[in-house]
Amino acid sequence: MAYDFDLFVIGGGSAGVRCARISAGHGARVGVAEERFWGGTCVNVGCVPKKIMVNATEYGQWAEDAAAFGWDLEVKGHDWARLAEARNREVARLSGIYGKLLAGNGVTTFDARAKFLDAHTLQVGEQRVTAERILIATGGTPQRLEIPGAELGLISDDLFTLKALPKRVVVIGAGYIALEFACILRGLGAEVDVMYRAALPLRGFDDDIRTAVVEALQGQGMRLNPDVSPTRITQVNGHLMVAMSNNFMREADAVFFCTGRSPNTAGLGLEEAGVETNASGAVVVDEDHRTSQAHIYALGDVIDRVNLTPMATATGHALADTLFGNKPRKASYDDVPTAVFTNPPIGTVGLSEAEAAARGPVDVYVTRFTPMRHTISGRQGRRTLMKLVVCQKTDKVLGAHMLGEDAAEIMQGIGIAVRMGATKADFDRTIGIHPTAAEEFVTLRTRAREAGVQPPSQQAAE
């Protein structure tokens, strides 16, 4: 059978665009359909606009701290509309670049929704197309909790369409999106409550980081509400009232649901194509990103594995090289560096202490200090934490974790070392750059504790 395309990609985000562009560069006939906006979540309602808003909060704090360093500045307040205009202009520019990249590589683009009719046929807007191979890269979508009045709350996308800063905000959730949004809103002047049902935020991160970020958020004047869940949202006299499971109430001008994202698979016609999903709606794939149909692949947030933009682009590039470039390869999901752009930010790579200890004995090195900048400024909630988790048997650094200024920038370099299998001895014989915070990673000499070792009584019993 002659197909219209060698590869058709559903979704114009990071994974889909990279795979489409590289595949076309290898000579494949490629089509891409995107129903909302080119560049996906990251460019339009995620990484890019969020980081611009994080930058805005930093400028405000630097202006406030300047007096401690001898500067006499007058700060008249923040102009939300001016920030929004600059942010939206940059988002539009980057989104446009995605379309130009595809066109420049000969990819056929469709501003339309694509839906499977069968395993090789798609309804794309008003037309039908066929493809030998198909890639599902439709990303994820934010979710609200199923509680009375949930429709009164906002989702994460809505931050980027607000016309003004709400004065009082309740952020529901304890993941990285929730904490980043809380820091942005607080940094721009809002009163912020954060509600989450666990004892600590950031499930899955190292426990020392989770504890330290609580201190940092409280130091900024946020009110944290752990071990509770919202039970109802009501509107009273133009304001919102959030009822909590501990029988307390919070009044707010806006409520953000940052309670996770679900794979965006609804309405794609996956049943007609014979593509399996799991209980959460994520597309099930094997190590080669093949679905239950051998010619249909899935990448990015829609498979709910490591939901990071660089991971999506890496896997998209690898899949294109494998299918059409005559150089089969895989992008590894191991030791992926990542950051949380709280204030201060978090950077992490490799295993947490708990994960590493579950595999065997480890040595743990930890330091906490106030950065030089804030010994002068006196700003609260800015203590830095750095941590290395080291295998006792091999001396290999299994994990590195940091909360503090420039953590994301520092962790990119540390990530290379961990990915290459560096040992603690390699870190120790590296000369530090002084005076910096980063030098602490190569001057950690005193072991804080040992983890993953069985009690003597248990060892004797075995």
Automatic annotation (TrEMBL):
Gene: gorA
Cofactor: FAD
Family matches, as InterPro entries: FAD/NAD-binding_dom, GSHR/TRXR-like, Pyr_nuc-diS_OxRdtase, Pyr_nucl-diS_OxRdtase_dimer, Pyr_OxRdtase_I_AS
Record-annotated Pyridine nucleotide-disulphide oxidoreductase dimerisation domain positions: 336-444
UniProt EC number: 1.8.1.7
Protein family according to the UniProt entry: Belongs to the class-I pyridine nucleotide-disulfide oxidoreductase family.
Keywords on record: Disulfide bond, FAD, Flavoprotein, Oxidoreductase, Redox-active center
Species: Falsiroseomonas tokyonensis
PROSITE patterns according to UniProt: PYRIDINE_REDOX_1
GO molecular function ontology, one term from the record: glutathione-disulfide reductase (NADPH) activity
Record protein name field: Glutathione-disulfide reductase
FAD/NAD(P)-binding domain location: 5-316
Keyword set includes Cytoplasm: no
